[in-house]
Amino acid sequence: MVSLEKKTPEERLNICRKYYLGGFAFLPLLWFINAIWFYKQAFKVEPYPEQTQIRKYVIRSAIGTFVWILIILVWNIMFQVFRTKMGPAGDYLTFVVPPNKTRIRDAYKRLIILNHPDRGGSPYVAAKINEAKDYFESGAK
């Protein structure tokens, strides 16, 4: 990374402005980098004429980063909640790691121990657990 101390105030302002404007090209990582990289120049060093503009870009970059993170989180949560209601499109957009026989066996053991009729569990639930195990093992490698 370039040392900002070696740059003139005009060059710092120009770099800060480019990172800020680059964030509008759907590159919010640039806003994050801008906010972190120029924080010291905007708030911690002795005042100079371009500092007020740099401070403005740093604050806006931090806000832009926060907004993008919020948008991504909300989208992710909404997708996870409503994925099953999307039908085939939700399944197509979702990457599911196929289970292997070891994972199926381990999950089966945990569930059947908790729900076995000899230990007070429901025969119906135990039958459904066995059904699920058979179903997944028939498709697992």
Automatic annotation (TrEMBL):
<dbReference type="Pfam" id="PF10251">
    <property type="entry name" value="PEN-2"/>
</dbReference>
<comment type="similarity">
    <text>Belongs to the PEN-2 family.</text>
</comment>
<protein>
    <recommendedName>
        <fullName>Gamma-secretase subunit PEN-2</fullName>
    </recommendedName>
</protein>
<keyword id="KW-0472">Membrane</keyword>
<feature type="transmembrane region" description="Helical">
    <location>
        <begin position="20"/>
        <end position="39"/>
    </location>
</feature>
<dbReference type="GO" id="GO:0007219">
    <property type="term" value="P:Notch signaling pathway"/>
</dbReference>
<dbReference type="GO" id="GO:0007220">
    <property type="term" value="P:Notch receptor processing"/>
</dbReference>
<feature type="transmembrane region" description="Helical">
    <location>
        <begin position="59"/>
        <end position="79"/>
    </location>
</feature>
<dbReference type="InterPro" id="IPR019379">
    <property type="entry name" value="Gamma_Secretase_Asp_P_PEN2"/>
</dbReference>
<dbReference type="InterPro" id="IPR036869">
    <property type="entry name" value="J_dom_sf"/>
</dbReference>
<dbReference type="GO" id="GO:0070765">
    <property type="term" value="C:gamma-secretase complex"/>
</dbReference>
<keyword id="KW-0812">Transmembrane</keyword>
<keyword id="KW-1133">Transmembrane helix</keyword>
<keyword id="KW-0914">Notch signaling pathway</keyword>
